[in-house]
Design brief:
The chain is an alpha/beta fold. The chain is built from nine helices and ten strands. Helix content is 48%, strand content 17%. 40% of the residues are buried. Belongs to the enoyl-CoA hydratase/isomerase family.
Length: 244
């Protein structure tokens, strides 16, 4: 069963996260399929840009705690989105949690609908937004990052736009995307690739400099007693032992 649905219209390839059983969580299988789909679109000269969207009410629930991807594979996915020589546009009409925010922040442009909500829930599980900092911290307002990294609070699309996590919050996401996609169709492939290279250069350097350390830090946290308690409590739908 495929976890990524695909379609195309006038040079825009759409990749749809289609794993409703786990709310489009980042399983090893989903990460692998998405990487393959992106590589195929990168090599296709008829594709001008990629739209990344989802089925159901959740864009991405974060890591699949029952079948998580290898951290290096997930970091590779985020880097490939950033480095793809074609723009990647996120279309979000649902909830985004934890690692899903790292996936979202890797995209060049993101439009979120009014039903969307966002939360960095790692601290509540005994973890930290380690590897997703590679895409989040260059994008998100630092004061907001301080708050949401630490508290795990949920926030809406308007707040996501205010802190620069998404490009635009819109009542009608598809209507808001019309001028964006029209602009991408009018741009030359060379112009798009060269322009994207300019705005992503600093982010790619941070991957090269910090990814290895953050992967190790993430692995250490996942292996800790606190994280085991946090993830067990989450799966059992109870408060972890440290909640006061």
């Amino acid at each position: 069963m495929t976890l990524i649905a695909t379609s195309r219209e006038r040079g825009i390839a759409t990749l749809t996260l289609d794993s409703p059983a786990n709310r489009n969580a980042l399983s090893a299988a989903l990460v692998g399929e998405l990487r393959e789909a992106l590589a195929d679109r990168a090599a296709d000269d008829t594709v001008r840009a990629v739209v990344l969207t989802h089925t159901g009410s959740t864009f991405c629930a974060g890591a699949d705690l029952t079948a998580p991807p290898d951290p290096e594979a997930f970091v590779g996915l985020m880097r490939e989105i950033v480095a793809l020589p074609k723009p990647v546009v996120a279309r979000v009409t649902g909830h985004v949690r934890a690692g899903g925010l790292g996936l979202l922040a890797a995209c060049d442009i993101a439009v979120a609908g009014e039903a969307s909500s966002f939360a960095l829930t790692e601290s509540r599980l005994g973890l930290a937004p380690a590897v997703i900092s590679l895409t989040l911290l260059p994008r998100v307002d630092r004061t907001a990052a301080n708050r949401y990294y630490l508290t795990g609070e949920r926030f809406d699309a308007a707040e996501a736009a205010r802190i620069s996590l998404v490009t635009l919050a819109a009542e009608d996401v598809d209507k808001a995307l019309v001028p964006v996609l029209d602009g991408l169709r009018r741009a030359s492939p060379q112009g798009l690739a060269a322009s994207k290279e300019l705005v992503t250069a600093t982010v790619l350097r941070s991957f090269d400099q910090y990814a290895e350390d953050l992967i190790a830090r993430s692995a250490a946290l996942f292996a800790s007693d606190e994280a085991r308690e946090g993830m067990t409590a989450f799966l059992e739908r109870r408060d972890p032992a440290w909640v006061r």
